[in-house]
């Protein structure tokens, strides 16, 4: 990876969603502009805010797709990220914080 580039892989859990009433919403359903979660697979030397293994939030419209060893990845710049999820801890049952 060069400069501030980040290689991410989409979360497998992000493919389908459930509404509050329990209806399954497929990933192909269009709900307007929606951000997506992914896991950082590789990061360039100029990346300062994230590291490999972090879960990040980004806009799927601002992406470049690439295939490496028959797996699909997304190439982003660090500035295209909206948030980095804090890792879940077992001591706290408060949920996910950004």
Automatic annotation (TrEMBL):
Role played: Together with the chaperonin GroEL, plays an essential role in assisting protein folding. The GroEL-GroES system forms a nano-cage that allows encapsulation of the non-native substrate proteins and provides a physical environment optimized to promote and accelerate protein folding. GroES binds to the apical surface of the GroEL ring, thereby capping the opening of the GroEL channel.
**Similarity section:** Belongs to the GroES chaperonin family.
Organism superkingdom = Bacteria
Q: Where are the transmembrane segments?
A: none
Q: What does the record note on quaternary structure?
A: Heptamer of 7 subunits arranged in a ring.
What is the protein name for this chain?
Answer: 10 kDa chaperonin
Pfam families hit by this protein: Cpn10
Is Iron-sulfur tagged as a keyword? Answer: no
Task: Please provide the record's keywords in A-Z order.
Answer: Chaperone
Tagged with keyword Ribosomal protein:
no
């Amino acid at each position: 990876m060069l400069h501030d580039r980040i290689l991410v892989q989409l979360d497998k859990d992000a493919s389908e969603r459930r509404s509050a009433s329990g209806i399954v919403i497929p990933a192909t359903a269009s709900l307007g502009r929606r951000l997506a979660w992914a896991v950082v697979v590789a990061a360039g030397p100029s990346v300062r805010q994230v590291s490999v293994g972090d879960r990040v939030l980004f806009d799927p419209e601002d992406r470049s797709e690439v295939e490496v060893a028959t797996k699909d990845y997304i190439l982003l710049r660090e500035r295209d990220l909206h948030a980095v999820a804090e890792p879940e801890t077992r001591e706290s049952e408060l949920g996910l914080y950004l």
